[in-house]
Amino acid sequence: MRSLQTSGLVCAAGIATSLTNSGQQWDFPNGWAPLQHMIVEGLARSKLIEARSMAKEIAERWIRTNYVAYKKTGAMHEKYDVEKCGESGGGGEYVVQTGFGWSNGVVLAFLEEFGWPRDQSIDCIS
């Protein structure tokens, strides 16, 4: 948990896949749903209260960015820009794909695990 906190990978809208900004799809500033899910689930299963709190915070960031991007574009995306809430990712050999099942599934898993308080805004935090 502490390594993740100091790694530079945890960003405003999720966890970056790497710290290398190469312009490729698997690099910064892109974040992918399966990576978010694996890290959040690992933290959530920890017996440490701080780890579960970090898991919830990362999940909320990911839910927000997916929701805001969906409201803007009408679609879920395969990857997101973890520096900018509500923005799809980029780079790689092809145009960003929409309607991605793993993005849908991870958001649903996070909502099932943590819920979303009715009085909490789901829009990006500025």
TrEMBL record:
GO biological process: trehalose catabolic process
InterPro entries in the record: 6-hairpin_glycosidase_sf, 6hp_glycosidase-like_sf, Glyco_hydro_37, Glyco_hydro_37_CS
Enzyme Commission number: 3.2.1.28
Pfam families xref list: Trehalase (PF01204)
UniProt keyword terms in alphabetical order: Glycosidase, Hydrolase
Top EC group: hydrolase
Record field: catalytic activity: alpha,alpha-trehalose + H2O = alpha-D-glucose + beta-D-glucose
GO MF term list: alpha,alpha-trehalase activity
Family, similarity comment: Belongs to the glycosyl hydrolase 37 family.
UniProt protein name: Trehalase
